[in-house]
Amino acid sequence: MKVGLVVPQFGINATKENLTEFIQLAEKEGFESLWVYDRMLYPLDPQSPYPYSGPPDMSEWPEHFKNVLDPLTTLAFIAANTKNTNLGTCIIDMVFHTPITLAKEFTTIDILTGGRVICGFGIGWSKHEFLASNTPYEKRGDRANEILKAVKKIWTDDIVEFNGEFYKIPKSIIGPKPIQKPHPKILLGGFSPKTFERMVKYGDGYIGYIEALVGSFEYIHNSIKMFNDAIENSSRTRKEFDLTFFTNPRLLNSSISREKGNRSPMTGETIDEIGSDLSMFKESGVDRVILGVNAGKDYNVNETIEFFKELKKFYQ
Predict the structure, then answer these.
(1) Domains and CATH numbers, the chain
(2) CA–CA separation, 292 vs 9, rounded Å?
């Protein structure tokens, strides 16, 4: 099982110094991939509750969403400062972009990294972000399907022409093409069965998200089942797909109570408890786990990398 790390791209620790030190240490330690994610804004009067908030306030957004570096610009910076590590988005909301700009941006990073980019795409859930990007919230799934079809044509066709309901590309030559053939891997994130339908039609894998203290083992197993069922009901095979989960492992202390035997995934009072979940992912056929931390005021790059290194024995 491969393991990637989320870079310090958010919160008060999103600095050039932290980012540079983190990616260099991660590559030195041999982690498979480095990841960024997409957050456009922090609404003061949220219309959409944060999907992973726990009690008491189900609408509260994480504090670090107030300060987030742009994902693709950050990915380009990481590309220029690494040599071997794969680079991905987990995820970028594709509906806030046009197909041609999205395709060109990922193509450029793929070329400049020698073929190391992984495209994690989602359709978004925050109504404020739809408003800010001038994108209709309605039919966002249909819009996403068109984007995926158009992006793949841009990446693979010598002459590109696209006429959809939402997007149109006149007959054109659009180059260059990505280094990876036929194109960079597309992983789709989402919460509904339609995500898996979209995956087998247009994608190459799935990214699920498990929030420590809020997520459940049932969600993990259901997601894996839906992933496998979607492939079995398609004309494609399991080896064509990549199953990835993004999670924030968290060591619990005495101030955080929990019911005995009711532990959330990727939490524990010891490294061994968290490690047992990594072993579970591996045994369940998960191809990759992406590890992140909630970068608060006590965040330290070296301590974070050491924490991730301690978990290595459970998935190697």
Answers:
(1) 2-314 (3.20.20.30)
(2) 11
Q: What average pLDDT does the segment 273-297 reach?
A: 90
The predicted model scores a pTM of 0.92
Structure tokens, 7: 């870079």
More confident of the two residues 315 and 86: 86
Q: Which has more confidence, 149 or 263?
A: 149
Amino acid sitting at position 93: D
Give CA–CA dist 113/132, Å, rounded.
31
In angstroms, the CA 282 to CA 314 distance is 9
315 in Cβ contact with 278 (< 8 Å): yes
Residue 2 phi/psi, 5° resolution?
-85, 150
